[in-house]
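Please, structure for the following, as tokens.
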Amino acid sequence: MSDNFTRQLYIDLLKRCLTNTIYFRPTEEIGYDFRDEGKDWPDDAHTMIGLKRIDNIQFCVEKVLMDNIPGDLMETGVWKGGATIFMRGLLKAYGITNRSVWVADSFEGLPRPDLHNYPHDQGIDLYQFSELAVSLSEVQDNFDRYGLLDDQVKFVKGWFKDSLPQAPVQQLAVLRLDGDLYESTVNALDNLYPKLTPGGFLIVDDYGAVEACSQAVHDYRRRNGIEDEIIPVDWTGVFWQKTK
């Protein structure tokens, strides 16, 4: 049995555990397609992004490893930590010890919209959903459950407007945004996209699901002259490879 075959078995099992498709039983309301597409908020899983967006993370991480694109991996907005646990698992599977995974979240849920500065967030009430508030200790415990809590995992706690400007991130190869709001999305882009190495990947989870998020992406790209092709992942996720 080859090392690559064994590695892919581990990665596939990690995906199934993080999305809980390994135990998932479809109902009349929620079928396998919901879990594949990440259209439900599962109580019994460590991520809600679905298998297609998990596959996209694998593609991006493996591509930067294969092409020797320097930099760490990061997600802004992590919920229970599933996507970043998967990132750490990929580094583990490939024996990578010189890259970190940055886990950025308020660990208190989403902020109340700041409509004075970000009017596009009008009507977004996700701050009221207590199930989106997962504590730092719970996310750390989830990493530990997979045997992946170590010094290659770095946590950045706080509202993005406060935490990201001072986050000690030097260089990124993969940056994944999952903050829903215009404010959260543009804060992440303003503070972190300049640290993304050319050849690296920018992933946006909520592009198709939240109009304010896609507006923030387009506004940032227009202001900064970014013309890299936006590629769909599924019904909501998109990504692009940074060329310059």
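The domain at 56-241 is CATH 3.40.50.150 (Rossmann fold). The chain has a mean pLDDT of 95.
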